[in-house]
Design a protein that fits this description.
This protein is mainly α. The chain contains 9 helices and no strands. The termini are far apart.
């Protein structure tokens, strides 16, 4: 029964975000960009809620099985360090690589966000930072590792590939390479520390700076 719950949870965690990104524009056609974005964020939080409930009530496991542990000073320290590395080292390298490979840039995704208020973008940064880390790091890495014979490296790689590909529907092909590079750092942080709070902080801080930059262009 636990395996059934885990397979359902993995389906939600790995396939839920890209399916939402692909279907939301069609389902919410006619709404303003701001309303559509807020509803998309609500949908993302619903996916996160489903994963938490599957973990607690179907798998009957503690939240620590998702890497959700009591934060310490190291949680905040490593979250801030990784965020700085993502912003000032990894992101420039990723952007250069996308250009070098002559892949489409992020303009298609950026154009959908420019008319959205900064406050909504900040909420979106929080949504992405918390829920995506819960789905792709806390749940997917742990459960995929178990299903592959406790091969953490394989579970982490499968989760990372899914995370990168999930950004394709909204941001385009270039984002897959860009996100794979940034996601690698977040994946290594989680595998090393098993502290999902540090991942959530790093992802959220990075997303806040990047999305505020969009609002100022």
């Amino acid at each position: 029964m636990r395996h059934v719950a885990t397979f359902v949870g993995l389906g939600i965690a790995l396939l839920g975000p890209p399916m939402m990104a692909a279907l939301t524009p069609r389902l919410l056609r006619g709404l303003s960009a701001t309303k559509a974005n807020l509803l998309g964020q609500l949908g993302l939080w619903c996916l996160g809620g489903l994963i938490v409930n599957i973990t607690l009530f179907w798998e009957q496991r503690p939240l620590s099985s998702l890497g959700l542990i009591r934060p310490t000073w190291q949680t905040f320290l490593w979250g801030a360090i990784i965020a700085a590395g993502l912003l000032y080292v990894v992101s420039p390298v990723g952007a250069w690589l996308v250009g070098w490979l002559r892949l489409p840039d992020f303009e298609s995704g950026l154009s959908k966000l420019r008319d959205i208020p900064a406050s909504v973008l900040l909420l979106g940064a929080l949504s992405a930072g918390v829920v995506e880390e819960l789905l792709y790091r806390g749940y997917a890495i742990e459960r995929l590792s178990e299903l592959t014979g406790h091969r953490v490296w394989l579970g982490a790689l499968l989760s990372l590939l899914s995370f990168a590909l999930a950004h394709w529907p909204f941001w385009g092909l270039g984002s897959v390479v860009f996100t794979f590079i940034g996601g690698s750092c977040l994946t290594l942080l989680y595998v090393w520390k098993r502290d999902l709070g540090a991942n959530m902080l790093a992802h959220t801080l990075t997303a806040i700076v990047q999305l505020l930059a969009i609002s100022n262009t």
